[in-house]
Amino acid sequence: MGNLSDMTLQVERVPTLSDNYTYLAYCDQSKAAAVIDAAEADPALVRISELGLNLTSIFSTHHHLDHTAGNPDIAKATGALIYAHADNRGRLPGLTNELREGDTVQIGPHIGRVLEIPAHTMDHIAFYFDDGPLVFCGDTMFAGGCGRLFEGTPELMFEALHKKLGTLPADTRVYCGHEYTEANLGFASEIFPDNLEISERLAAVQETRKGAAADWHDATPAEMTIPTTIEQEQKTNPFLLAPTVEELARVRALKDEW
Ligand SMILES: [Zn+2]
Asked: What is the pLDDT of residues 91-110, one digit of tens each?
């Protein structure tokens, strides 16, 4: 039977809409798979077929349509169950499995833990897997940034970033909901003009994004800046560098106007 590397949870990045990431997380041995944040059905279904995956689950980090619109068609095509926060009962089409803090989800032998991280929306959750380790965190933490506060408060975003996601192992790979990294680091470099790690990361990201496909659907892994890591975000994300709720609120307000 397989060695350790076979047991690692694999992640396929599927570009959707204009800058969204839909992910396929799968077990290399059993081909059991979950789709995370299905903005669109077709691009995910194509990759599921090409990779020969057996899709058992659809995970949604929050209810926004650019993270859920593909759910019904994918469920219809595959029979997969739809998992999201319990507060989405009656709101999220086709929801079958209601989740709360500490609940577990499964992809073949891989167990994921649900973290409640309300701030961008109040129903927002993350899926954390020890096998990686890796986390799917939707629109809460971005590479070099964080989501807008549509429903929650700066206090809640501070809690989500510093007390939840920020306490995951440093080497945790972070799979977020959008390819916003270049703009986020452009902003970060204005807020922290003397931070060498931010300016170096911005230069590296600009290099990665140079010559990116005109249509995001055609993007290749070479032009994707995701995943990032918790360690990298601790060093260069202005919202993790903000030491207090008040400072996070100030930086978030500046970014909203940027
Ligand atoms: Zn959102």
From this structure: 999 999 999 999 999 999 99
For the chain, the structural domain boundaries read 4-257
Distance CA 194, CA 186 (A): 13
Whether residue 124 lies in the annotated active site: no
CB count in 10 Å sphere of residue 202: 21
Cα-to-centroid distance, 120 and ligand 1 (Å) = 7
Report the C-alpha gap between 18 and 66 in whole angstroms. Answer: 10
Cα of 126 vs centre of ligand 1, distance in Å, is 13
Whether residue 19 lies in the annotated active site: no
* Distance of alpha carbon 72 from alpha carbon 84, whole angstroms: 13
pLDDT in tens, 48-88: 999 999 999 999 999 999 999 999 999 999 999 999 999 99
In the residue annotation, 63 being an active-site residue is answered as no
Determine which one of 63, 120, 124, 162 is catalytic. Answer: 120
Instruction: Choose, from 37, 87, 123, 139, the residue flagged as catalytic.
Output: 139
Beta bridge partner(s), residue 136:
127, 175
Question: What distance in Å separates the CA atoms of residue 20 and residue 169, rounded to the nearest whole number?
Answer: 25
Query: Across residues 203-220, what is the average pLDDT?
Result: 95
Centre of ligand 1 to C-alpha 153, Å, is 15
Q: Please state which architecture CATH assigns to domain 4-257.
A: 4-Layer Sandwich (3.60)
Residue with tokens 């299905």: 38
- pTM to 2 decimal places: 0.96
On the 0-12 / 13-18 / 19+ scale of CB atoms within 10 A, 69 is: middle
- Provide φ and ψ at 139, rounded to 5°: -105, 30
State which residues have CB under 5 angstroms from ligand 1, the bound ion.
64, 139
139 catalytic per annotation: yes
